[in-house]
Amino acid sequence: MDQEVVALVCGTCKSLSERMKTESELFNLVGFENEVMEWSDFENKVPPLDEPRWMRSDHPPVQGQIRTVKVHHPFYMKTGEPFWILYTPVSSSLNGWDSHPEEIEQSSFVQCSIERVLERNDFKAWLRVKVLEVWAIKDYDRRFPERDGGNGYLESFEIFGDPYIFQYRDWLYISAGAQGDLGVWGLVKQRDNQYHMLVYGDWNFHKNDAFGGNILLPKHRIEGWIEQAKQKDHYEIVE
């Protein structure tokens, strides 16, 4: 049986999604960011594709489940082919970790495969997917071996100038961008007086990628960023 391709169109410029690279020399996991996929509790009957108001699921994915999800550009995948997606619980998926930092440790990378296409148009699709793996982000500093983050990891932040940083307990969320057109972000865990970047995000109009790993960052550079962010009022501690 031929594999059906689900490739969706950008609502702004009408260009077709391109296939995402599924491997990285710098990270252990490569996937879509959470905004590309929304999780529901529907089964085979789903709302119209253009219906903006529907109940997002507050049930986290579990290995072996079959779930119904809604996907958007830049999603591109074939039926039956495994792919990774960053999963965040419903509140942070809608409003971000900076609004709901308590959900950071409930977030994960989820590996799925498309079982069936329920509904689709050029811009969106409802899919039935099988959950193959669920790997909690909070464990990546122990799951994956450390990689040296001295080169090739932080330069993309510095291109955009001063990053914004918020701190929640042992977590730092660092983001930088250019006027809402493109940007990068990183989720960093502090452990044993060191800084481990466990998730990295890279986005623009036609890309919304997330990467998982265990990148040991240079302490002096991160603490220099923190001091600089405090001086420029780009630093926030979230309780």
Give a written overview of the molecule.
With 239 residues, the protein is mainly beta. Helix content is 12%, strand content 42%. The strands form 2 sheets. Strands 2, 3, 4, 6, 7, 8, 9, 10, 11, 12, 13, 14 and 15 form a 13-stranded mixed beta sheet that branches. Strand 10 and strand 11 (171-178) form a beta hairpin. The radius of gyration is 18 Å and the shape is globular. The N and C termini lie far apart (52 Å).
Q: Assign a percent range to the helix content.
A: 10-25%
Q: How many DSSP helices?
A: 4
Kindly state the mean pLDDT as a whole number?
Answer: 94
| Distance between the ends | 52 Å
Short characterization:
The protein is mostly beta strands. The protein has four helices and 15 strands.
List the helices and strands and how they pair.
Blueprint: E1 5-7, E2 29-32, E3 37-39, E4 66-72, E5 76-78, E6 83-87, H1 90-95, E7 108-120, E8 124-136, H2 140-143, E9 147-148, H3 155-159, E10 164-168, E11 171-178, E12 182-191, E13 194-204, E14 207-217, H4 219-231, E15 235-237
Parallel strand pairs: 2-6, 9-14, 10-15
Antiparallel strand pairs: 1-5, 2-14, 3-4, 4-8, 6-7, 7-8, 10-11, 11-12, 12-13, 13-14
Provide keyphrases for this structure:
15 strands; mainly beta; 13-stranded mixed β-sheet; two-stranded antiparallel sheet; 239 residues; single chain
